[in-house]
Amino acid sequence: MTVPVVLTARALLLDMDGTLVNSDAVVERVWRRWAGRHGLDGDEVMKVVHGRQGYASMAVLLPERPMEQNYADNARLLAEETADLDGVVAIPGALEFLASLRGLPHALVTSADVALSTARMGAAGLGLPDVRVTAESVGASKPDPEGFLKGAAELGVDPADCVVFEDSGAGIAAGRAAGMRVVGVGPRAHVHRPDVVVADLTGVRVEGLGEGMVRVRFGVGADTLSPSGV
Length: 230
Description:
Layout: E1 5-9, E2 11-14, E3 21-22, H1 24-37, H2 42-49, H3 54-61, H4 67-83, E4 89-90, H5 94-100, E5 106-109, H6 114-123, E6 132-133, H7 146-155, E7 162-166, H8 169-177, E8 181-185, E9 196-198, E10 204-210, E11 213-218, E12 223-224
Parallel strand pairs: 2-5, 2-7, 5-6, 7-8, 8-9
Antiparallel strand pairs: 1-11, 3-4, 9-12, 10-11
Helix pairs in contact: 1-2, 3-4, 4-6
C-alpha cells in the first residue's frame, strides 16, 4: 500500500553506492570491462556485483578461482574505480538528508574502501559521517551482517534499534541478518522486499526526539512492504 510512514530508531546505518551516491555509470564501465576480460556476460555480472565487495562478487562469478586471485583482482578494480569519477553524483535528496543527521547517531557502512568512499562522497559533494565502516573494517562482505553489526557497536546502539538504508539485494540481506529494519532506496531495492521502499531521499525527513531517539518520516509515495517493520 502507499501511505505516509514513520519509523523510530536510535541510529541510522547508511550504505553509500546507490543509497547516497549514484555511481552506477562507473560500476558499469569497470565491471563490464572485467566481464569481457573473463569471457562472462556483462548483464549477468551486473546482477551480482552491487552491494558486495569486489572479491566476493568474483567468488560468485568465478567459483573455481583461488581467492588469492580474487583479492588481487579486487585491488586493481578498486584502483580503477577510485580513479574514475565521471558520472558520480549524489542521489536526489542525499545532501539534505545527511544535513538533517548532524548531531544524531548515524554511520556509513559501505563495501568500498577508505580511498573509494572518500573519492565518491567528495565527487558527489557529500560530507563523510564521523563513524565509518569500510572494506578495511570487516572480514566478510555483505550479505554478511558484520558491517552493520560493527556500525551499531561503534555507535553503542543495539542492532534492533537501528534502521539501515540500502539499495542492493546483498545490502538488504545484510541489514535483515543483523536484525535491523531496512529502508530500500531506488529501483534495485523493491524486489528484495525491505520494510520500506523510497525512490530516493527527497521525501525522507529525520528529527531527533531526545533521550537518544530518532524519528524518520517518509512522504506519501513510500511503499510499506512489511507492516512489522514500522
